[in-house]
Design goal:
Layout (H helix, E strand, L loop, with lengths): L2 H14 L3 E3 L12 H21 L2 H6 L9 H22 L7 H27 L5 H9 L9 H18 L1 H4 L2 H18 L43 H11 L1 H9 L2 H26 L11 H26 L2 E3 L2 H7 L2 H14 L5 E2 L2 E2 L6 H29 L8
Antiparallel strand pairs: 1-2, 3-4
Helix pairs in contact: 2-4, 2-14, 2-15, 4-10, 4-13, 5-7, 5-15, 5-16, 7-9, 9-10, 9-13, 10-13, 12-13, 15-16
């Protein structure tokens, strides 16, 4: 096995041991989805997202390093969404007047954090001089487009938070709240499916046909320059709605899962394996892009959108099944779980900054024993964590008054 895989996978497994809890026969982890446990889960996911983005680099792909993470980033994000939906509804039903001040205490801090992030990236790009035009700077600094390509998560989560607030604040709408939330998620999917990886109104003549084909067109005509122009925006949002549904029906679901747990586990594991093969087949053999890099077509995009969302939903369900018996809850991951958003949003800077270690232009660079890949991974991880502390500190200062009252 690739020694980088041995190190990464080995350390990851070892890091789960502190705080792991395995329920005995006929017993279950009743705290399987407590606030502490989900915080720990978010910490794990934050690092998994870093590994996912690292694994997509050409040098890592060519050597098979960390290949486990390469194609399942959407699942990690889906679990984030699931935890968010679950947590929102749990707070809604257990905390009196939870939605009072919701926009100020839950949505506004995300918006403030987003613009602090923009400031981070603006400084970075002023230093690296990427050659943004005036119109591009205006759009990126205002948030009309993204200065950080991984920041799409904030747009989507804010939309889902706003939808949750306006739907569940209204008693009449609340009766069909889950269905309405699903419609909001599907609406985002339709924006991508009906639209394109590029502005749909430009026509096929502007699709990518060869390297450099977009070099002479305006920045906003290039691949995925506009909002909701990539499948990653929409392929895991159903998990947010599933989190709400799961929380609402948790008592019935747990009663069903606990009854004949072993049989349920075998059956759901078999389905999970089949679902994984089907999903990976689509990702590897179909995908959302044509061989020439253009748009795959509305029908296939819709099929992929539905398949990947269903897979995210089922993975979250299967994860809950596992955590009833085996769950991890340690202080290390719980600590980083509290700053998972910061970790997620600052990483792109360092994924770019240390690129010269592993690639020259678009070509991967290999050194003896691929030591440069390990150096790249270590530098990215350390710098992301360090920058996240600074980012977190600024966020706390900026939102301190907003959070002075308990949520």
């Amino acid at each position: 096995m690739n020694y980088i895989n041995l190190i990464v996978y080995g350390l990851l497994i070892l890091s789960f041991i502190p705080g792991i809890k395995i329920a005995r026969k006929n017993n279950f982890n009743e705290d399987y989805f407590s606030f502490e446990t989900t915080s720990c889960l978010k910490g794990i996911l934050a690092f998994c997202v870093i590994f996912h983005h690292v694994s997509q680099k050409a040098a890592f792909h060519a050597t098979g390093s960390m290949s486990f993470f390469e194609h399942i980033g959407f699942v990690f994000v889906g679990i984030f969404f699931f935890c968010s939906g679950y947590g929102l509804y749990k707070s809604f039903i257990t905390k009196e007047n939870y939605l009072d001040g919701f926009l100020k205490k839950r949505v506004l801090p995300l918006v403030i954090s987003y613009y602090i992030m923009i400031a981070f990236y603006a400084v970075y790009y002023l230093i690296t001089k990427p050659g943004f035009s005036v119109s591009e700077w205006i759009c990126k600094l205002s948030g009309l487009t993204m200065i950080n390509s991984q920041a799409w998560f904030v747009y989507v989560i804010v939309i889902m938070y706003l939808a949750f607030y306006f739907i569940f604040k209204n008693e009449k709408l609340r009766e069909n709240g889950i269905a309405l939330m699903l419609l909001v998620a599907i609406g985002q999917g339709l924006v991508y499916i009906i639209g394109n990886h590029f502005p749909w109104y430009l026509g096929e003549s502007n699709w990518y046909k060869a390297p450099g084909a977009f070099s002479n067109v305006s920045w906003w005509m290039r691949p995925c320059a506009l909002l909701f122009s990539g499948e990653w925006w929409v392929e895991s949002t159903w998990a947010f709605v599933f989190g709400i549904w799961y929380c609402k029906n948790e008592e019935k679901i747990l009663a069903y899962l606990k009854k004949n747990y072993l049989v349920n586990f075998i059956v759901f594991t078999a389905v999970f394996i089949l679902a994984t093969f089907a999903t990976l087949h689509f990702i590897w053999d179909v995908g959302f892009w044509s061989d020439m890099g253009g748009d795959l077509g509305t029908g296939k995009k819709a099929a992929g959108y539905i398949l990947l969302n269903l897979y995210c939903v089922y993975t979250c369900f299967y994860l809950a099944l596992i955590m009833l018996k085996v769950r991890v809850n340690n202080k290390f991951y719980a600590f980083f779980g509290k700053m998972s958003l910061e970790i997620y949003l600052v990483q792109e800077i360092f994924l770019f900054t240390f690129n010269p270690l592993i690639q020259k232009g678009r070509n991967p660079v290999f050194k003896a024993n691929n030591i440069n890949l390990l150096q790249y991974l270590a530098l990215v991880a350390v710098c992301v964590i360090a920058a996240s502390f600074i980012y977190r500190f600024l966020n706390v200062i900026a939102t301190k008054k907003l959070k002075s009252k308990k949520n």
